[in-house]
Amino acid sequence: MSKKGINLVVGDIYDMMAIWKSWYRGNVNDFHYFTMKMADGVEKQCERLTMNIPKKVCEDFAKLLWSEKVQIKLDKKKNTERLLEVLDSKENNFKVNFPSFLERVFALGTGVTVEYKKDDKTIIDYIDGDLVIPYKYTNSYINGLITVSRFTKGTDNNKKYFTHITYHEFKDNKYTKLNELYKSSNETTLGKELPFNDMFSDVLEFEEFETDNPHFQVWKPVIANNFDTDSPLGISILANQIDKFKAIDTEYDSFNREFRTGKKRVLIDRTAVKKKTEVDSDGKINYVSYFDNNDEVYVAIAGMENQPVKEIDFNLRYQEHISSINAQLNYISAGVGLGQNYYNFDGQGVKTATEVVSENSDTYRTKKHHEIMVNDCLYDLVKAICELEGITYKSINIVFDDSIIEDENALIQRGLELYQNKVISLEKFMQKYLHYEESEIQEEITKIQNENKLVQPEGMDFFGMEQETESQEEEVVENG
Questions:
Q1: Cβ distance 146 to 123 under 8 Å?
Q2: In whole angstroms, what is the distance from residue 425 CA to residue 223 CA?
Q3: pLDDT in tens, 157-207
Q4: What is the C-alpha to C-alpha distance for residues 155 and 157, in angstroms, rounded to an integer?
């Protein structure tokens, strides 16, 4: 691999990633922190409260697409078990790390997984999109990219910044990796290149693999990049919803301010809060205040001499705020493809819809839309692991969890009814609804047939299907 002639894709898309990341984090400097001029003309620094809906949206997309019920199977059970050992090793912790990674993919618009060997173990790196630079691509397919990681050594004035850069390229059935290391005294500069193996003696500086599958995958939400149409990078699921996030945080901050500024007030004359002297029966002088100076309910003003205490009780616009926030939540959920009424605000927090999601709903179509990307990238990741581990396979089967659409038992019951009504075959029922591999189906059917002969009444199988016998056929002929 040569670095000559490499054109890096940098610029506006990374500036946008920084904005999407700040909204995902829930802390946008030029929005959640602002200056307000008070009644006396003094400017005060204020913080706007946030519902952090961007984080919630990304979490829900990850949950829609991934759960512990998702199945990854190879054609042989022992090979599947070996694959799962690699995925669930303490180094990879796929069940924990992958959902978090997928959440950040939807937040930043891009993410990369890289598979490699270290200390004779297969390792998966989960890399965020703002640490990835593509340099070779066709349309949106990226086959050359740079991944960046940074670390520091030393403290205070002796602090040094190290940047580890890896070039990944896939071309003509060859996957190549080139590692570089740089050191700088300044956090914002790359600095001087160092011999890579001086610091990473156990990692090859250059590697080359003969393979039809690269050991990296680029994950992107299946939505068009309308911010930079020339970039092969994806865009955040949040990208076109920023104005709506601003609106809902503005209304949520107003909702909370309504309780702070709208509470009951009692107006009293300013002189009433001053301490007065009283002499007790023993002649001891005490200073007495008739009102608690720390009580926020009382407001002391001038000009109320000889006037009774005046109570002011504001009407809180509680329901109006809730209705407005729910309207904004509907705009957001529809905008990201989750449909209307996916979220609901009840005055205490945001709740996700719990009703059954139908197959013709926006939520279901959006889930299936993005499953295409997850399936393709996950398929390639499994292929890379199998290659590194020497695991043989004939097929890779990824079964997604549709229990949000309908309960698994209800799905099996539906399939059983289709089979009993002769709409689908037994093989189709076992494959689609029971998730059997093709290689397992015939073996299982043979076992079922043998058990039917032993324990079932004649003319009935395990699934309740009546079977015609020769005597039944003859009776029909005679009656005819």
A1: no
A2: 37
A3: 889 999 999 999 999 999 999 999 999 999 889 999 999 998 988 888 999
A4: 6
